[in-house]
Specification:
Blueprint (H helix, E strand, L loop, with lengths): L13 H14 L3 E5 L5 E4 L1 H7 L3 H4 L4 H4 L5 H14 L3 E8 L6 E12 L5 E10 L1 H19 L6 H12 L6 E6 L19 E10 L17 E4 L4 H8 L3 E4 L3 H9 L5 H6 L3 E9 L2 E10 L8 H38 L10 E8 L9 E8 L5 E8 L4 H19 L4 H24 L12 E9 L4 E7 L5 E3 L5 E3 L17 E5 L5 E5 L2 H4 L20 H11 L5 H12 L8 E8 L7 E6 L4 H17 L5 H18 L4 E7 L2 E8 L19 H8 L2 E7 L2 E9 L5
Antiparallel strand pairs: 1-2, 1-5, 3-4, 4-5, 6-7, 6-11, 7-8, 9-10, 10-11, 12-21, 13-14, 14-15, 15-16, 16-19, 17-18, 17-20, 20-21, 22-23, 23-24, 24-26, 25-26
Helix pairs in contact: 6-7, 6-11, 7-11, 11-12, 12-13, 15-16, 17-18, 18-19
Length: about 725
């Protein structure tokens, strides 16, 4: 037995209990009203009377749709009729301005039938619960989630700023503007924060305004560009100087002064007035890149502290996206500058081909790739045409592309045939992969440490023989368009991608009529039109040749066009109507041929008397070409080269003179022994021949063929020649 329990207290008298009930109903903080079977008000507590904005006498005996016409009160009257008819309770959730205080609130309204002892409905009660705080909390959470999904979909700063404005206007503010510091979008990519009391230069990047449909101003977002200066004591300048968000009332002198003549607010916004203002810096990674302005008009609910926290959270997400976009823009600009510096500034003029090219970087989202091309003059008036593609994007791909292009030029300088050149290039890529793997183990490599695969197409055209020799390392095949308009893909022997290692490459040799068009390109050109080919090689052979990209490329190249520049533009317009998703390199070459009267060839014996015969023939040919001034040096060069071939090589021996942009002298033999230049001692009888050739000629070298080798020497021609 609990001896501490309080003794039973007598209950209140019946009249006091009735009074308590009436008092409780009248003083209850939730609006409560009672309606009869005709849905007319019988009684209401003080809170419901206050919320209605009417007197108690004006309420009694009236229906809701009679008291307060229009939504949502007509809907409430209909719900009351339904509850009286069905006897089932109904809850209604609404957001509207309560007539009593003129403030927009969220309400949970409970319509409950009142039944007698027999269960018959005699009336109904209405309880109106203010759930504005909960409603706004849900709205804030939904806004944060929606903004998080919409902001930062690209790596473009302007688009990110627009997404911030679009995700908050109307739902959070009547007017939203996003301004970036010019330093945050400049060429150096460095953003900074202005000091206190300093004017601020900003760039209006995005602005959005929620306006009524019947407004004289357009409802569509208004965009502006260009920079403007904020006074040093204006709300934006103060927020940037402090780096902290701020909430302002519209009647503050600083706000009135700033909003009254600010060029950044549309005239219609200034006309409606600024009721409250939030200024939130875009700060991320200790960098302030700009600010966001949120404006509510005087007829809207003013911003509160919860709104300021919400604006901070949304803007913080946007600031990270803007900063990431700024850093990406900086890296992209560096990579693009590096890539363009590694590509030929201008293609060299050459007697063998007329060339033109295009390079299109990928979209910002995809990033820069490693596509490249080159045109390399070779000995014997020949020319090398090269196109390659490095897997990956960014600085790493651009740097690798530069190394491969330099390697190709070095290997081309020693006159390697295409298949051998690709073999050496493959060895280099394998070595690069091993180096990056070692760096990755040491923690010094980036995210692209293992990505060293590349493709390459190397082709050599000889204007004397009118033949093309080409080899491919997993690269799209070139297109050959003959003068009669026939366009076809050259069926090159398939070769592995660079970096696989250990697999051979094979060459294809074809005859190319004078005036033919050669198109070398990277896979981004044909993949953009649904070629169905992940590997560019399939675009021109087998089933892949029926792809949209391959067919369209052939048709476009086959159209008559006098200028290569026009052909280049037509190809890009046809296959890439929009900005490409991947890098694209395109190299076009129209072949030329050296006329027979510009080339002379003689077969020589291995007898010493052939040296004098060679000098005589060369002198006669130079006289016929009007190049007598080169006779002395050319005879010396021919004497040395022919003598070396007779003494150290094997027959047959062939002498060839080519008059191109330079005078080229070639001596071919059946030996694969490479000549070596050495410095002769004072009393040596030989050893000075190649040194003499090097002194007399602009350049000289050796190239090897299946039948032996060719030693060549090149002398410049005077402009008159």
């Amino acid at each position: 037995m609990d001896t501490n329990a309080a003794p039973d207290a007598p209950g209140p008298p019946p009249e006091d209990a009735a009074d308590l009930g009436r008092w409780a109903l009248a003083q209850f903080p939730i609006g409560i009203a009672v309606y009869d079977r005709d849905n007319r008000l019988v009684t209401a507590n003080d809170e419901m009377v206050r919320l209605s904005g009417l007197s108690r006498d004006g309420l009694t005996g009236r229906r809701l749709d009679e008291l307060l016409p229009g939504p949502p009160f007509e809907e409430f009257a209909r719900i009351g009729d339904e509850v009286l008819r069905t006897g089932r309770a109904v809850r209604a959730d609404n957001y509207f301005v309560s007539p009593g205080d003129g403030r927009e609130r969220a309400w949970a309204s409970f319509f409950t039938p009142i039944k007698d002892a027999d269960g018959r409905t005699r009336g109904l009660s209405l309880a109106a619960l203010d759930v504005t705080a909960e409603y706004r909390a849900r709205q804030r959470l939904a806004l944060v989630n929606d903004a998080g999904a919409r902001i930062g979909t690209t790596l473009d700063m302007d688009r990110t700023a627009a997404e911030l404005a679009e995700s908050t206007v109307g739902r959070f503010a009547d007017f939203v503007a996003v301004d970036l510091l010019p330093d945050g979008i400049g060429s150096d990519g460095e953003a900074g924060r202005p000091g206190p009391g300093e004017p601020v230069e900003l760039r209006r990047t995005a602005r959005r305004w929620s306006v009524p449909e019947d407004s004289a101003d357009p409802a569509a977002p208004v965009s502006s560009d260009g920079t403007y200066r904020c006074p040093p004591h204006s709300p934006p300048a103060l927020a940037l100087a402090s780096g902290k968000p701020a909430r302002h009332r519209g009647d503050e002198p600083a706000v009135r002064s700033w909003a009254g003549d600010s060029p950044t607010l549309p005239p219609a916004v200034r006309a409606r007035g600024v009721g409250s203002l939030l200024v939130v810096p875009l700060a991320a990674h200790d960098t302030v890149s700009g600010l966001a302005l949120f404006v509510r008009h005087p007829d809207s609910e003013p911003f509160d502290d919860h709104d300021l926290l919400l604006a901070e959270e949304i803007t913080a997400r946007a600031a990270v996206c803007v900063e990431n976009a700024r850093r990406y823009a900086r890296e992209r600009a560096v990579a693009l500058t590096l890539q363009r510096s590694l590509l030929p500034a201008r293609l060299p003029g050459h007697a063998a081909v007329e060339v033109t090219s295009r390079y299109l970087p990928a979209t910002a989202q995809a990033g820069l790739g490693g596509d490249w091309y080159d045109v390399i003059p070779l000995s014997g008036a020949r020319v090398a045409l090269v196109v390659g593609d490095v897997v990956g994007h960014g600085l790493q791909a651009s740097a690798t592309m530069g190394r491969l292009r330099a390697a190709v030029r070095t290997l081309a300088d020693i006159d390697l045939p295409p298949d051998e050149l690709l073999t050496h290039l493959d060895d280099l890529v394998v070595q690069l992969a091993q180096d990056r793997a070692a760096q990755a183990r040491d923690g010094d490599a980036g995210d692209e440490a293992g990505e060293t695969d590349a493709s390459c197409l190397y082709a050599v055209y000889d204007p004397v023989s009118r033949r093309l020799v080409a080899a491919s390392a997993d690269h799209p095949p070139p297109v050959l368009v003959t003068p009669d308009g026939t366009a076809r893909f050259l069926e090159l022997p398939p070769g592995p991608a660079l970096g696989v290692g250990g697999l051979p490459f094979e060459s294809l040799e074809v005859e190319v009529p004078e005036g033919s068009l050669l198109a070398l390109y990277t896979d981004g050109l044909v993949e953009g039109r649904g070629s169905g080919s992940a590997s560019g090689r399939d675009a021109g052979s087998g089933a892949g040749s029926d792809g949209d990209g391959g067919r369209l490329l052939r048709r476009t190249l086959a159209r008559p066009a006098a200028e290569l520049e026009r052909v280049c533009d037509d190809v890009l317009a046809a296959l890439l109507p929009e900005r490409p998703a991947d890098d694209v390199a395109l190299l076009l070459a129209r072949t030329r041929a050296l006329a027979a009267d510009r080339v002379s060839t003689w077969e020589l014996t291995d007898h010493p008397a052939s040296v004098a015969d060679a000098r005589k023939r060369v002198a006669g040919q130079l006289a016929a070409w009007g190049l007598e001034e080169l006779a002395f040096t050319t005879e010396l060069v021919v004497s040395e080269l022919v003598t070396n071939a007779i003494r150290h090589a094997a027959p047959p021996i062939r002498l060839r003179l080519i008059r191109d942009g330079a005078l080229i002298c070639e001596v071919s033999d059946a030996s694969s022994t490479s000549p070596r230049m050495r410095r002769a001692r004072a009393f040596d009888e030989g050893g000075r021949g190649l040194l003499l050739v090097a002194q007399l000629c602009r350049r000289w070298g050796t190239r090897f063929t299946a039948a032996g080798k060719t030693i060549w020497a090149e002398q410049p021609l005077s402009p008159a020649a």
